[in-house]
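Project outcomes to date are best conveyed with an example. Our students and postdoctoral researchers have been running inverse folding experiments weekly, and each run begins with a structure described purely in tokens. The record below, which covers 129 residues, was selected by the lab manager from last quarter's runs and is presented without edits.
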């Protein structure tokens, strides 16, 4: 069980690191093609990775760039071939030349793939109170 938990933490660490570096290619490769996304700053869910990539491109057009992302209060709940990763995130991002810091809570659901890797299949981001 510890080996499996470590593999999920490694997948989560890689995803968060790619996001914090604004490494778009590596970040999106951490998600399955049919992953779903719910973000507090959008008025609708994103039903697959392609929809999120399109939204990200619109944000970039408007000057979006991730400057840093710090993850804390991390937990993993194992449910067979599914793992639920929760954490608190503090993100610094640039929007149209202004730096903004956000405090959020995030749930990322990972699923073990046939080759043994873990891909994110759902992400839910909410404001921290």
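After processing, the design step wrote out the following sequence:
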């Amino acid at each position: 069980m510890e080996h499996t938990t470590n593999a999920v933490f490694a997948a989560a660490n890689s995803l968060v690191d790619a996001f914090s570096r604004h490494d778009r290619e590596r970040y999106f490769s951490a998600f399955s093609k049919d992953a779903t996304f719910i973000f507090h700053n959008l008025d609708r869910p994103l039903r697959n990775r392609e929809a999120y990539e399109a939204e990200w491109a619109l944000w970039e057009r408007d000057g979006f760039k991730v400057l840093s992302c710090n993850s804390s209060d991390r937990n993993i709940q194992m449910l067979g071939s599914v793992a639920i990763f929760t954490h608190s995130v503090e993100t610094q991002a640039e929007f149209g030349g202004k730096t903004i810091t956000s405090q959020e809570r995030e749930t990322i659901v990972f699923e073990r793939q046939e080759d043994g890797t873990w891909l994110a299949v759902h992400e839910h981001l909410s404001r921290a109170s």
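The longest helix spans residues 2-20. The chain is about 30% helix and 50% strand. The training component of this project remains on track.
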